[in-house]
Structure of non-reducing end alpha-L-arabinofuranosidase:
Amino acid sequence: GSTRNRPGHLNAIWGYWSTDGLGLYEYMLLAEELGAEPVWVVNNGISHREGIPTAQIGPWIEDALDAINFITGPADSRWGAVRARMGREHPWNLTYLAIGNEARLTLLCLTQAHATSPSTLSLASCADQDCGHPSYIGNYISFYFAIKARHPHMQLIANCPLGNAAPTDLFDWHIYTSTGDMFEKRHAFDGMVAGRDPYVFASEYAVLQDGGWGNLQAAVAEAAFMTGLEANSEVVRMASYAPLFVNTNARLWSPDLISPDMCRWYGTPSYIVQQLFSQHLGVIYMATTVQ
């Protein structure tokens, strides 16, 4: 409904208030305006702090199906009618949907990491546990088959490669790291084989540890990483830098790609790299050696 009627909520894990001003409707409008492929992430009943057992996940699945109906349903369907009343009669197309995000017990992981090695404590130290919550696979399978039954064309994204545990169209790959490590990650997907391995969505990546407010060194390392994405494009289906936006008057994370305030905006050097890659598409990958 109207943004004026949205109550907002405390985004407790990150410690800030969300106005709920960017909802599903606004997100789809933004993707359309940018000419971007929308990827909707649904709540799979697992947060960084707690999780819903698979036996109780039914209402969350219904929420996901309702959201898909809101996006793609005809104007005379239940949630398509809500969309139409908001001003959008024609449905949008939705191909990609992620089942949850970073389904790990982050606080438990960080607590254990602090106890064993406080000097190296970081979110990256828990990044390999993105399917670590005990309910994740069960919840994922329940979502997967319920959504595929109604929307067989949709490409569903897992939080990690699940191997033989569950069908996987694509899996999320996240990294926030240092300049040197990001540079080395240009080889992260070199050993993957299309048809044998699941497809990759590198959906969150950025130089964080020494990126400052966004600097040239970080941008160069990210550019090197992106050459690896292009070199392995037979297995890396999609990629997106993160975070995309930050309000310069309410900055809680840095660096970010685009920084607006009420009057203007600017992009970091990483933004220039993203622009460079989007506007100059190569057709031949030239192997290079850097010393």
